[in-house]
Amino acid sequence: MAEVSNKGVTLKRHVTGYPTEADMEVVTATVRLAVLPGSTAVMVKNLYLSCDPYMRSRMTRHEVPSYVPDFVPGEVLTAFGVSKVVESGHPGYKAGDMVWGMVGCEEYTLIANPETLFKISHPELPLSYYTGVLGMPGLTAYAGFFDVAKPKKGEYVFVSAASGAVGQLVGQLAKITGCYVVGSAGSDEKQSSLKTKFGFDDAFNYKKEQDLNAALKRCFPDGIDIYFENVGGAMLDAVLLNMRLHGRVSMCGLISQYNLEQPEGVRNLFCVVTKRIRVEGFMVTEYFGTYAKFQEEMAGYLKDGKITYVEDVAEGIENVPAALIGLFYGRNIGKQLVVIARE
Questions:
Q1: Which of 21, 183, 274, 336 is buried most deeply by CB count within 10 Å?
Q2: What mean pLDDT is predicted for residues 126-145?
Q3: What region, left, alpha or beta, does residue 101 occupy, with left being phi > 0 and alpha being psi -120 to 50 degrees?
Q4: Residues of 95-112 as b/e, b for ≥16 C-beta within 10 angstroms?
Q5: Positive or negative, the Cα torsion across 261, 272, 142, 176?
Q6: Which helix (H) or strand (E) holds 214?
Q7: What does DSSP say about strands 180-185 and 156-159: parallel, antiparallel, or unpaired?
Q8: Separation in Å, CA 36 to CA 32, 93, 96
């Protein structure tokens, strides 16, 4: 098999505070497009890479192990991606199969445990969707809303970071369920898109609000039943004041805290007691066993026009660092992904 050039993105050093492009490096190696005889590994060509907020945690050195392993300086980063099998020693995969799963942030990846990959069952839909609405972020929205928050028709739902990869889907799933939905975002353009593109009932630009508690009271005069939490900090504090009795908080992420050396505290926790609020975190990996059911349902929504999905697309492996860093400055509108190759 031919030996080919293989560009990838490595971490130069562990990060404290806000990451920069200088913390990463694009390097060029070579790889032989083959698997060892008798091996069950697969070699894939990466087409699309996903940039996701959880990757920030992996860029820090943790004294106490985190929920995902830290990246190792000098080694290629890993991310969820969409790939094409070019060589396989596994009986379940053959050259030409389209898959998604965890791969290297590089042009080609040898995957030793292909059982972790998911086959793409709807190639008629954009392949890039498998970095988002039909991939990990989509399943995150679906599981976090339906399995954790357990919505009922007519309930009041608030989504923070609502124009992102997960938030835009939670809002639309809530509308499909028959809920009243409000989202927050960090620009006027994003605020507008929540109502005009994604069908939210209302939205606000949190950067323009002097008082988040007042903004939530304006949008939810009767209170909030479900909060889909993506940001943490001051927003979570304000939401707790506005939750209804027996409300639920589905804890997906806390992006406002990821780059702080000292995380912010939450002052209004007594509301959890007085309002009998259920606060529950979740990991999407625990729901991978339900992926087949989710994929069929979400593909149906997309084909029926019930779900709209917006992507923010960067081109080329060289732009992975800039695209990833942009997540923490709110530069992306919709799902941030990077095109590595178009087959």
A1: 183
A2: 97
A3: left
A4: eebbbbbebbbbbbbbbe
A5: negative
A6: helix 212-219
A7: parallel
A8: 10, 15, 19
Spatial distance between the Cα atoms of 109 and 17, rounded to a whole number of angstroms: 30
Are 134 and 122 contacting, i.e. CB atoms less than 8 angstroms apart?
A: yes
Say if residue 145 is exposed, middle or buried (CB neighbours under 10 Å; 0-12, 13-18, 19+). Answer: buried
What is the rounded distance in angstroms from the CA atom of residue 94 to the CA atom of residue 87?
Answer: 7
CA-nearest of 310, 75, 72 to 194 is 310
Looking at the DSSP assignment, which residues form a beta bridge with residue 182?
158, 202
Task: Say if residues 309 and 125 touch (Cβ distance below 8 Å).
Answer: no
Q: For residue 300, what are its two tokens?
A: 């149906």
Q: Which residue has the higher pLDDT, 1 or 288?
A: 288
> Strand pairing of 42-50 and 108-111?
antiparallel
Quickly count: other Cβ atoms within 10 Å of residue 247's Cβ: 25
**CA 53, 183, 58 angle in degrees (round to 5)?**
10
The bridge status of strand 78-88 relative to strand 98-104 is antiparallel
Q: Using one digit for the tens of pLDDT, what is the confidence trace for 72-102?
A: 999 999 999 999 999 999 999 999 999 999 9
Q: Answer positive or negative: Cα dihedral of 30, 34, 40, 45.
A: positive
Q: Is 212 helix (H, G, I), strand (E, B) or coil?
A: helix
* Token pair 């080329």: residue: 316
2 pLDDT tier (thresholds 50, 70, 90): confident
